[in-house]
Amino acid sequence: MHTNLYEKPATELCKLLANKEASSVEITRSFLERIQAVEERVRAFVTVTPDLAIEMAQEADRRIAAGNNGPLTGLPIAVKDNMCVKGRRVTCGSRILANFAPPYDATVVRLMREAGMVILGMANMDEFAMGSSTETSYWGPTRNPWNPEMTPGGSSGGPAAAVAAMEAPVALGSDTGGSIRLPAGFCGVTGIKPTYGAVSRYGLVAYASSLDQIGPIGRDARDMALILNLICSHDPMDSTSAPMEHPDFISVLDKPVKGMTIGLPSEFFSKLEDPDVDKVMSETRVVFKSMGISFIELSLPHLDYGIAAYYIIAPSEASSNLARFDGVKYGHRSAQFESMIDMYCRTRAEGFGPEVKRRIMLGTYALSSGYYDAYYLKAAKIRTLITNDFKNAFRTCDAILCPIAPTPPFKIGEKIDDPIQMYLTDVFTIPVNMAGLPGMAIPGGFSRNGLPVGIQLIAPHFQEARLVQLASAFQRETDHHLKSPVL
Ligand code: GLN
Question: Which of 132, 175, 359 has most ligand 1 atoms within 8 Å of CB, for mutation?
Fold first, then answer.
């Protein structure tokens, strides 16, 4: 049966490219046509860059012809709209950056260029990555490819939906409190938030700098290995980038997992009220057991405070990071103003959406004199307690298993007017960022309504290879990751 190039997994595309059985221009055209065909229904992209893509694909083909290619040369990718691509529009899903073209490349973008990858465009996201549904984007919501009434999750809803809809073989997202894992889970694809410090944040528009991390979204563990091999590296341009060697992630794909121990945090499992999520979690355990993995129950006593502490720390950092958007150097400036202060006020009032304003106000309040100790300092202490909980847990297990979200994908519009309900979506993902750990989303099954339900694996610091190894083993035994929505 004839399959289109865009339907093929990334590893197969890389093989076709290396064997000169398909050119990068052919592959890129196939994805650009696919984007044209389905984008109206998905709206995964803020900006599609066909000219840039074809130019990069031609360059990749020249490199392949000259034998000057690497494992990813010629492979297309979508990037979240918060990573700087020199001279191209990068908006962070916001009106305030609606016409912003960065003067430099983010480190991950430079690495992609050096590898000869092909950038298809910038994918949609919640404004400044604040949200769990991609609904706060100035450009309007992305739709879940499995059901257009549902959200794709957020904030990297665009990158995840693009991969699920086969508009891109792989994508880069960013994750501050779940923004790679939640949309990967909701869209039935695979995604990983690496350890804090594993991937350079240079050129990533900052949301909460002590939590932000860039990571790959793709169809399976193999895609994760391909992209992690490229992006995990030390970068002197990011002072929090870890000065260390990362393993070859491809080499762990076929490593056996027999004898490993997975921990099940009782605090997480006691929160499972949704029958679909509950069913997927039980089935997952059966699969892992059949591979010779044992389970132990464990306790992470401070998890309950995760969301409360996160919604002090993340807005506090955001209120400081977003102070730079004032109409002077970046993006939007109000057309009418009476004084400099008036210009700042009007620019920010016009440029930021309601959720971003809410976060700036929360953060400014939490950091203000007299409240700092009561809020920010307390939250920072809770963060340490959560980190220690995980440290203790990993004395007895190799990885932790839990859901990604308390429910399957929810409807567009369902939670957007109720911030607390929206924030609660991230109950299982936020603690992982608080502790700086690597966390992975893997397709775990489907709800009774045919919507994807993801599972999450968490590993100790810098053990993303273990996650890839476990996910790869899981995906040899299951076929959830091979299913795709009909569009
Ligand atoms: N939903 C969370 C928030 O709004 C996490 C978002 C993210 O990871 N960028 O902060």
Answer: 132
For the chain, domains (ranges, CATH) are 5-259+401-482 (3.90.1300.10), 304-378 (no CATH)
Cite the DSSP H helix spans in 394-434: 419-424, 430-434
Contact 444, 483 (CB under 8 A): no
Are 263 and 298 in contact by the 8 Å Cβ rule? The answer is yes
Q: How far is the CA of 423 from the centre of ligand 1 (A)?
A: 8
Query: Does the CB atom of residue 439 touch ligand 1 within 6 A?
Result: no
pLDDT in tens, 331-383: 999 999 999 999 999 999 999 999 999 999 999 999 998 999 999 999 999 99
Both tokens assigned to 255: 């490593």
pLDDT at 481 over 70: yes
Q: What pLDDT score does 123 carry?
A: 99
As a whole-number percent, the residues of the chain with pLDDT over 70 amount to 100
- Look up the pTM and report it: 0.98
Token duo for residue 222: 């193999």
The residue whose CB lies within 8 Å of the most ligand 1 atoms, and thus the one to mutate among 82, 94, 125, 130, is 130
